[in-house]
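Milestone 3.1: sequence recovery, worked example.
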């Protein structure tokens, strides 16, 4: 007996630099071509979700994150117009600035100030349920809760 048909497994990575900017990409392909998105993508056979998150971040932006913190799992069947996906979202706080360079599925990669016109509210799809949790975790980390966000630049 084979595996049942199930949703595709994906990852998303919310990355903050030391100044509090968030890393966004512009999508190279549909759906939402040209729109802002979090770095992320599909988990490949044989890799963990953490490995997939680091790989997608590196491929799409050139940025490396060592430590990841789970934000949550998001499974709204209507989140992606291509079909049902389940996304495991991670949060990374970089200890040092990093240059973002677009690659793979990203047409552009850039650090965006939170609250700016291109901030977290402008992400094209699927981020609304994560937004509050990311803000809360970042706020707690800034108040000295070092267990909330880890440093992540080798």
């Amino acid at each position: 007996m084979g595996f049942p048909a199930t949703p595709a497994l994906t990852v998303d990575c919310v990355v903050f630099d030391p100044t509090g900017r968030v890393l966004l990409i512009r999508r190279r392909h549909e759906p939402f071509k040209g729109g802002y998105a979090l770095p992320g993508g599909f988990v490949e056979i044989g890799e963990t979700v953490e490995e997939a998150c680091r790989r997608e971040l590196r491929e799409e932006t050139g940025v490396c994150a060592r430590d990841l913190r789970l934000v949550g799992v998001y499974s709204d069947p209507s989140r992606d117009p291509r079909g049902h996906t389940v996304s495991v979202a991670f949060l990374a706080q970089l200890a040092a600035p990093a240059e973002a360079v677009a690659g793979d599925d990203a047409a552009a990669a850039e650090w965006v100030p939170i609250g700016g016109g291109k901030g977290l509210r402008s992400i094209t799809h699927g981020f609304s349920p994560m937004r509050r949790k990311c803000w809360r975790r970042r706020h707690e980390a800034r108040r000295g809760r070092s267990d909330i966000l880890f440093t992540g630049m080798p």
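The chain has a mean pLDDT of 83. The chain has two helices and seven strands.
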